[in-house]
């Protein structure tokens, strides 16, 4: 058991038969009344997100999550296929479970999948990935980094706001936690 005050972003716990991941957690002391923990939580199985408060002394059961290094093989007919790098065992994950993560995955990319008992509950991405620009407006001559930018569609379908000088075919480094442009990737 773990107290609500000890919960941090990224931790997973069980409550009412649900597996819940903490997205954000902050300690809040209102002008009157007792201290509370404000949290943004996501139900791992359904994907629904809720904002809630908990008493700091409230106890929840911490879930033991195992991780395994895998390689993303392909996405076909609503199922993403991964292969364990050590045993070559293959895992099939429904696309609905990892819909957001798929926007950053390229074939043969190495990632980590997370298990709760024998159930796959998610995919951990690296902090940044290199993706190629598939579609964007033509570059503007004399454009600088400080301009407002323009939308660019990456090879995976992810849409990112990029500086005006970026062109189709360029490889860019993208932050996976925020979905934002970091810099041009070195070839």
UniProtKB/TrEMBL annotation:
<dbReference type="GO" id="GO:0043043">
    <property type="term" value="P:peptide biosynthetic process"/>
</dbReference>
<keyword id="KW-0963">Cytoplasm</keyword>
<dbReference type="InterPro" id="IPR011768">
    <property type="entry name" value="Transl_elongation_fac_P"/>
</dbReference>
<protein>
    <recommendedName>
        <fullName>Elongation factor P</fullName>
    </recommendedName>
</protein>
<dbReference type="InterPro" id="IPR008991">
    <property type="entry name" value="Translation_prot_SH3-like_sf"/>
</dbReference>
<dbReference type="InterPro" id="IPR013185">
    <property type="entry name" value="Transl_elong_KOW-like"/>
</dbReference>
<dbReference type="InterPro" id="IPR001059">
    <property type="entry name" value="Transl_elong_P/YeiP_cen"/>
</dbReference>
<dbReference type="Pfam" id="PF09285">
    <property type="entry name" value="Elong-fact-P_C"/>
</dbReference>
<dbReference type="Pfam" id="PF01132">
    <property type="entry name" value="EFP"/>
</dbReference>
<dbReference type="GO" id="GO:0005829">
    <property type="term" value="C:cytosol"/>
</dbReference>
<comment type="function">
    <text>Involved in peptide bond synthesis. Stimulates efficient translation and peptide-bond synthesis on native or reconstituted 70S ribosomes in vitro. Probably functions indirectly by altering the affinity of the ribosome for aminoacyl-tRNA, thus increasing their reactivity as acceptors for peptidyl transferase.</text>
</comment>
<feature type="domain" description="Elongation factor P C-terminal">
    <location>
        <begin position="129"/>
        <end position="184"/>
    </location>
</feature>
<dbReference type="Pfam" id="PF08207">
    <property type="entry name" value="EFP_N"/>
</dbReference>
<keyword id="KW-0251">Elongation factor</keyword>
<dbReference type="GO" id="GO:0003746">
    <property type="term" value="F:translation elongation factor activity"/>
</dbReference>
<keyword id="KW-0648">Protein biosynthesis</keyword>
<feature type="domain" description="Translation elongation factor P/YeiP central">
    <location>
        <begin position="67"/>
        <end position="121"/>
    </location>
</feature>
<dbReference type="InterPro" id="IPR014722">
    <property type="entry name" value="Rib_uL2_dom2"/>
</dbReference>
<comment type="pathway">
    <text>Protein biosynthesis; polypeptide chain elongation.</text>
</comment>
<dbReference type="InterPro" id="IPR020599">
    <property type="entry name" value="Transl_elong_fac_P/YeiP"/>
</dbReference>
<dbReference type="InterPro" id="IPR012340">
    <property type="entry name" value="NA-bd_OB-fold"/>
</dbReference>
<comment type="similarity">
    <text>Belongs to the elongation factor P family.</text>
</comment>
<dbReference type="InterPro" id="IPR015365">
    <property type="entry name" value="Elong-fact-P_C"/>
</dbReference>
<dbReference type="InterPro" id="IPR013852">
    <property type="entry name" value="Transl_elong_P/YeiP_CS"/>
</dbReference>
